[in-house]
Amino acid sequence: MATEPTARLSQTYIAALRHQKSEEVCSTPSSLQVADVAFYERLYTPQRIYLSSAKELLRTIPLALRIITAQGDQLTRPLTLVDIQEVAKRCPSNSSPGLDGISYQILTIVFLNAAARGLAIQRSIDLINTEAKGFTRLISARPLPYMNRLVSPYQLGFMPGRFIGENSKLDDLKRHGVPSAS
Hints:
Elements: H1 4-12, E1 17-18, E2 25-26, H2 29-44, H3 51-58, H4 69-76, H5 81-90, H6 125-141, H7 144-147, H8 165-176
Antiparallel strand pairs: 1-2
Helix pairs in contact: 5-6
Protein name: Reverse transcriptase domain-containing protein
Organism: Rhizopus microsporus ATCC 52813
């Protein structure tokens, strides 16, 4: 009988995968790597967009709300390893990004179906919330410098230099009046 750490390791070890294109079962380290690369290349290769449709949508944006080319370049520049590392540094190690309670420190691949032989059914479950929250932080931070002129001054939450608690204080003042200075 395997010890608990050994059993846990065997549950995360991928012994074989079915190559997405050739359908052959891969079991050697080099063939597993080839199958892995093929799967993720297909998964993360951007799909073609229809530029004419995109341009038509962009023409509907009022001139006053459009950004200049330099701002657009900043918003659409590729993510860098430094960007990702900066976000990772800011992730608290003592908390969990999701309701599952799993902390950011857990980096384990869980194989969902032992009989399965494809990456499409394998999920890095423990990382889903971590990855999603990290990349959401990274992507949502980019437009913030340009948002002050586009968003109402009454929108206080999630805006740099604004504090959502101001709305609560204003509401208290409205309901209870201004406190006396005694």
